[in-house]
Amino acid sequence: MDYTVMLPAAGSGRRMGAGENKLFLPLAGKPILVRTLSVFQNDPDCAGIILAVRPDERERIREMLAAHGITKVTAMPAGGGERQDSVRACVRAFMEAGGKDDSVIMVHDAARPFLSRRVIRELAETVREHGAAIAAVPSKDTVKQVADGIVESTPDRSTVWLVQTPQAFRAGLLAEAEEKALEEGFIGTDESMLVERLGHPVRVVGSTYDNLKMTTKVDLAIGEALLKRQEEME
Ligand SMILES: Nc1ccn([C@@H]2O[C@H](COP(=O)(O)OP(=O)(O)OP(=O)(O)O)[C@@H](O)[C@H]2O)c(=O)n1
Ligand SMILES: C[C@](O)(CO)[C@H](O)COP(=O)(O)O
């Protein structure tokens, strides 16, 4: 089941505090960006990768792709100030290159190198039928809504899911949701929020707890430990 992946990689890694884009940091010897790209490079169902980059990093990334045998990147549009702008640049590049409204596209954070092929497959199958599907895990913790340091409410935990990427959509649906958000000045923290605003139902596919986003130094340490365990099991 073919899909094309939109990979926003144009962040600054402020919370990682590395002084450069965190995607260049090594995770057990390989840059985080290369680890994430390799998942899609090695997935026969992935027809292509569109990578949003910071213009001043384009050349360095090009060299990295060549050095690591990543051949599926078909476009590298300039990312924007917000993650959502970077994803929109990818979707526009996809459509301009002849992408069809009913093509399956996935959006995946370049900073999440541990996604599983099983989740990608289930998302692709679900989106073919329903148009929109996201990866998520049930919350293991009790969640509170808090205002000014005071608990306002406690949502029923059985209804709370922690959302990850990939998030998969029919291309035309996501493009419409993004353009509406742009027109209305709405900024969401994921693509699902934009599609929800169109009133389109978004399905949830059960993912794995190790599909972590490398956001802070603690995540890097956990990532190293996960890779070590994987190597020991192989
Ligand atoms: N303007 C932006 C912001 C983020 N991203 C990408 O979106 C993904 C998830 O974002 P996040 O983890 O927040 O990355 P950063 O923005 O780099 O980190 P921070 O918010 O700590 O600065 C990353 O792959 C990041 O490169 C992007 O392409 N364009
Ligand atoms: C899209 C996302 O990864 C879902 O958890 C997340 O919302 C990205 O958030 P960030 O603000 O870029 O860390």
UniProtKB/TrEMBL annotation:
Provide the alphabetized UniProt keywords.
Isoprene biosynthesis, Nucleotidyltransferase, Transferase
CDD domains recorded: CDP-ME_synthetase
List the Gene Ontology MF annotations in alphabetical order.
2-C-methyl-D-erythritol 4-phosphate cytidylyltransferase activity
EC number of this enzyme: 2.7.7.60
- Positions of the record's site feature: Transition state stabilizer: 15, 22
Job of this protein: Catalyzes the formation of 4-diphosphocytidyl-2-C-methyl-D-erythritol from CTP and 2-C-methyl-D-erythritol 4-phosphate (MEP).
NCBIfam families on file: ispD (TIGR00453)
What HAMAP family does this protein's entry cite? IspD
The name on file for this protein is 2-C-methyl-D-erythritol 4-phosphate cytidylyltransferase
Identify the species of origin: Bhargavaea beijingensis
Report the gene name.
Answer: ispD
